[in-house]
């Protein structure tokens, strides 16, 4: 650009007007910002959140304490023990510890589970204020949604 061209461009504040035009265009366009935490956006269907234990339609636990997930996990997230009660058809876990801070969300545990008991939830809020808060025991593994949030929030965590 010639010297005269550069002079005219700066004299008529062309760059500033261009910038203002962008501001005005965005000001009147549809807003995409979500006012978190008041508004929580649903993650995508395929999103991998914290793994949870699930029950069947009748409320029966699906986990049979086979430890396949424990064997598949490369980062030793699990510590599972199980017992078959007298007269029961299947074994149930008596201990099911899971460490969130070790999980790489690889999905091996979910893939190998024969009963579809362990699955990724869509919970993406993973923060805890101390390491103990990231260790889940058997009842905690069934928590979902806001219950899980209360658990992870140290201020409202229940005594163990
Ligand atoms: S997702 Fe991977 S790292 Fe996390 S608990 Fe399952 S197997 Fe372990
Ligand atoms: S969650 Fe699934 S793989 Fe893990 S112990 Fe229970 S039934 Fe077995």
Plain-language structure description:
With 160 residues, the chain is α+β, with helices and mostly antiparallel strands. It has a domain at 51-156: Alpha-Beta Plaits (2-Layer Sandwich), CATH 3.30.70. The chain contains five helices and five strands, in the order ααβαββαββα. Strands 2-3-5 form a three-stranded antiparallel sheet, with no helix packed on it. A two-stranded antiparallel ribbon has the order 1-4. A hairpin with an 8-residue loop joins β2 (78-83) and β3 (92-99). The protein is elongated and about 95 Å long. The mean pLDDT is 90. It binds iron/sulfur cluster (2 copies). One iron/sulfur cluster binds next to α4. One iron/sulfur cluster binds next to α3.
Note the topology.
Layout: H1 3-11, H2 14-28, E1 51-53, H3 68-72, E2 78-83, E3 92-99, H4 108-112, E4 118-120, E5 135-136, H5 145-152
The protein binds iron/sulfur cluster (SF4) (2 copies).
Residues 51, 72-73, 75, 77, 103-109 line the site of one iron/sulfur cluster (SF4).
Structural class: alpha+beta
- Our count of helices gives 5
C-alpha termini separation = 73 Å
* Bound ions, cofactors and other small molecules, one mention each: iron/sulfur cluster
Whole-number mean pLDDT: 90
Element string (H = helix, E = strand): HHEHEEHEEH
User: Which strand-content bin applies to the residues?
Assistant: 5-15%
Q: How can the largest sheet be summarized?
A: 3 strands, antiparallel
Report the principal-axis shape.
elongated
Helix proportion: 25-40%
Taking strands numbered 1, 2, ... along the chain, how are they ordered across the largest sheet?
2-3-5
* Low-confidence sequence ranges: none
User: What is CATH's topology name of the domain at 51-156?
Assistant: Alpha-Beta Plaits
């Amino acid at each position: 650009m010639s010297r005269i061209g550069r002079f005219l461009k700066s004299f008529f504040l062309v760059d500033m007007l261009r910038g203002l035009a962008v501001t005005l265009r965005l000001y009147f366009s549809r807003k995409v910002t979500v006012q978190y935490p008041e508004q929580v956006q649903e993650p995508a269907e395929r999103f991998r959140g914290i793994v949870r234990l699930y029950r069947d339609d009748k409320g029966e636990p699906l986990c049979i304490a086979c430890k396949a997930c424990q064997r598949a996990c490369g980062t030793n997230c699990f510590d599972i023990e199980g017992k078959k009660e007298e007269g029961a058809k299947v074994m149930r876990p008596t201990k099911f510890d899971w460490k969130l801070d070790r999980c790489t969300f690889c999905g091996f545990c979910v893939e190998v589970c024969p009963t579809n008991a362990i699955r990724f939830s869509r919970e993406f809020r993973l923060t805890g204020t101390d390491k103990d808060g990231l260790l889940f025991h058997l009842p905690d593994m069934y928590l979902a949604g806001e219950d899980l949030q209360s658990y992870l929030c140290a201020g409202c965590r229940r005594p163990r």
